[in-house]
Amino acid sequence: MDKLSDLINIGKIIEKQLVQVGIKTYSDLKNAGSRNAWLKIQEIDSSACYHRLCGLEGAIQGIRWHNLPKKEKIELKEFYDLHKIVK
After folding, report:
1. What's the mean pLDDT in 37-51?
2. Does the predicted TM-score (pTM) go above 0.70?
3. What is the C-alpha separation between 50 and 54, in angstroms, rounded?
4. What is the average pLDDT across 6-25?
5. Spatial distance between the Cα atoms of 68 and 55, rounded to a whole number of angstroms
């Protein structure tokens, strides 16, 4: 896959944001991890939501984020709640 948008859960907008924060390949995303990638995106887009975090994790695992194990979704939600920007 040459483009991040070829990954499941990653559309053109998220691809653009990932590239903007220095994540240009699947390997970059996998090495950064979903949490770190999401934190970087949040720095440039305060509307980065829980679903975007799950989408990044699903992209790393190669599955739709809806199909992430329940335990993993709970852990991601806890991480999101700790790091979200409150407006």
Report:
1. 97
2. yes
3. 6
4. 97
5. 9
Q: Report CA Rg, the chain.
A: 12
- Residue 82's pLDDT is 96
Residue whose structure tokens are 């699903």: 58
Whether 7 and 1 have beta carbons less than 8 Å apart is answered as yes
Number of other CB atoms surrounding residue 1 within 10 Å:
9
Domains, in order of start, for the chain: 4-83 (1.10.150.20)
pLDDT per residue as tens digits for the range 51-77: 999 999 999 999 999 999 999 999 999
Instruction: Name residues whose C-beta falls within 8 Å of residue 51's C-beta, 6 or more positions apart in sequence.
Output: 65
Separation of alpha carbons 44 and 26, rounded Å: 20
Other CB atoms closer than 10 Å to residue 34's CB: what's the count? 24
Within 10 A of 46 (CB to CB), how many other CB atoms are there?
11
